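Design job #97: recover the sequence.
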């Protein structure tokens, strides 16, 4: 499905809320180029099988830990030089105090191994221009400019190789705030005087060549925020580097659709399955680089569910940790990753080498696939223990628990498979069941009615699944809370006229009373508009409640507005139709419709 990305049209911004208009202002879609070449790279299979990667943002900014001259900064800590407009001459001094003596390559690689991680990508040079390895191209590196004087990347490459963890480098190829000709330092250097080609020739390309020559086989070169090059120049850049290690995969942020796999925006999971190799990138807390006051770590349950969600759409999750200035990986990152590893020890079969599930998301969870197998990731247990897998065309032969391989009782009625679940911990993050089958099963289908059941506290219908009427659109709204900590919410937007609307097709599996709420964001202009929701041969009227205007640098609040109670007297397929009752102004940005059974 083609989403309209709001960021494409209105976010012509740089990450910095720069007062200085940059000549090279880019849209987020350009910075997050997610187009891959579409050609299958000969070495892509390991990546498709890997499913779980570790991202590491580590650099001089870790030493600053989110604080500069007594002021604390929030959001992306690796952007502190830019956020605080630190002059190059002063930022350079930080290197003299950067001495990560606690760094232990073996411990880091072992953590990856214990967590069930299959590849590691670390910042060799981020936007601040500081090289975390021994570079002969610039003295602004960890060996020449710090008291540490050693090359941590040598040890890390070796420690990962020893454990069979693929190793790769992140490299910011365009943004370099240290260099007069690098991208995006507008506080020290005049944009109009920059010669990007000179920068590429004299720093980025020679440094990338060092990385591709001195650290053994690299699984990935992870480029970021492309810029300053035409398609032909990018092609020449790629060609010049590829010859050094043809087996290395290049991320799509190399730009111009020349990458080997797709990376979506930061902290973004596509709404529906995507074919071909791709990756979602998240950070463990709010920042990529270490910030000492950022303690918002995702719990093991959140990581496990995120991993399953990404895998259910066919992608890899690369989760970032931000080690501190001494070289320690934050305690909660290590602890929660190891917990995730314990879950993967038992359930890894449902994740590694899998692809997207053929069963659309259900109130109980998501699915992943392998030939002849559907893995059912049950995140929410139906109260009566009867699990419905709807509309499944395959010939089911066996259903069992993945962890204990215990066979379960099931029956197939038409295309519905009903499974008797055993007792299991209702609060478990993700309990996996395997359904083995033969025969051909149609590909994932977006138009299948969404299951609504009274066996769950709530049934949520996501905007992605709306059938649009008139000029209504589905857009992914991108915004940050602090700074660079991007969030994405998919909404139905542009319902402005009587002819616009959103329709959800639902299949109610148990008749009964349900309360219906709409979850939306509503700008001051859209407040107090009348709308209508038609369902079950009834029209329910409502008036919109104000939340706030959309601002890409602030949270986007949503309200859950309960507007109706209805009784479905029979199980079956129903339509929910939502539309404005006046012309001219957008009704709201609709995130989801919720149906909660009344017990
Ligand atoms: O600007 C960077 C940011 O600091 C971080 O490295 C992320 C990770 O994907 N990439 C860029 C923004 O998208």
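Job complete. Output follows.
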């Amino acid at each position: 499905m083609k989403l309209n990305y709001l960021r494409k049209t209105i976010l012509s911004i740089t990450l910095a809320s720069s007062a200085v208009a940059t000549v090279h202002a880019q849209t987020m879609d350009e910075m997050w180029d997610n187009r891959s070449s579409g050609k299958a790279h000969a070495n892509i299979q390991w990546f498709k099988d890997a499913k779980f990667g570790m991202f590491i943002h580590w650099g001089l900014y870790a030493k600053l830990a989110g604080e500069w001259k007594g002021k604390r900064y929030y959001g992306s800590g690796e952007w502190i030089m830019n956020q605080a407009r630190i002059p190059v001459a002063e930022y350079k001094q930080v290197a003299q105090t950067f001495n990560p003596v606690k760094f232990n390559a073996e411990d880091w690689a072992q953590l990856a191994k214990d967590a069930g991680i299959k590849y590691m990508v670390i910042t060799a040079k981020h936007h601040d221009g500081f090289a975390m390895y021994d570079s002969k191209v610039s003295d602004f590196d960890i060996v020449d400019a710090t008291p540490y004087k050693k090359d941590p990347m040598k040890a890390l490459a070796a420690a990962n190789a020893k454990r069979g963890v693929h190793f790769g480098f992140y490299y910011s190829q365009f943004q370099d705030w240290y260099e007069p000709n690098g991208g995006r330092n507008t506080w020290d250097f005049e944009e109009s005087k920059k010669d990007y080609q000179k920068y590429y020739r004299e720093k980025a390309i020679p440094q990338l060549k060092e990385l591709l020559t001195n650290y053994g086989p690299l699984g990935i070169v992870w480029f970021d925020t492309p810029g300053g090059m035409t398609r032909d120049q990018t092609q020449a850049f790629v060609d010049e580097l590829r010859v050094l290690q043809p087996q290395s995969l290049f991320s799509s942020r190399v730009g111009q659709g020349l990458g080997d796999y797709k990376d979506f925006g930061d902290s973004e999971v596509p709404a529906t399955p995507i074919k071909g190799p791709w990756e979602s990138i998240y950070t463990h807390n709010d920042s990529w680089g270490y910030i000492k006051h950022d303690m918002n770590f995702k719990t093991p349950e959140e990581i496990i569910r995120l991993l399953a969600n990404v895998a259910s759409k066919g992608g890899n999750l690369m989760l970032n940790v931000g080690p501190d200035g001494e070289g320690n990986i934050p305690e909660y990152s290590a602890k929660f990753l190891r917990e995730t590893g314990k879950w993967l020890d038992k359930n890894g079969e449902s994740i590694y080498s899998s692809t997207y599930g053929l069963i659309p998301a259900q109130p109980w969870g998501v699915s992943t696939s392998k030939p002849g197998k559907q893995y059912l990731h049950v995140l929410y247990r139906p109260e009566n223990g009867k699990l419905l897998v709807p509309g499944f065309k395959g010939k089911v032969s066996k259903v069992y628990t993945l962890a204990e391989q215990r066979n379960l009782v099931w029956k197939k009625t038409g295309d519905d498979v009903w499974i008797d679940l055993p007792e299991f911990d209702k609060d478990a993050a993700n309990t996996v069941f395997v359904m083995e089958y033969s025969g051909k099963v149609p590909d994932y289908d977006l138009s299948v009615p969404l299951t609504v059941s009274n066996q769950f506290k709530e049934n949520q219908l996501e905007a992605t699944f709306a059938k649009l009427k008139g000029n209504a659109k589905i857009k992914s709204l991108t915004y940050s809370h602090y700074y660079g900590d991007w969030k994405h919410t998919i909404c139905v937007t542009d319902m402005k006229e009587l002819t616009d609307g959103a329709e959800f097709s639902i299949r109610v599996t148990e008749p009964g009373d349900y309360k219906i709420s709409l979850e939306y964001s509503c700008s001051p202009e859209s407040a107090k508009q009348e709308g209508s929701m038609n369902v079950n041969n009834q029209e329910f009227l409502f008036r919109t409640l104000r939340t706030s205007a959309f601002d890409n640098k602030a949270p986007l609040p949503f309200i859950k507005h309960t507007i109706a109670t209805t009784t479905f007297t029979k199980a079956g397929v129903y339509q929910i139709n939502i539309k404005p009752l006046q012309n001219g102004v957008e009704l709201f940005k609709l995130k989801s419709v919720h149906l909660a059974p009344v017990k």
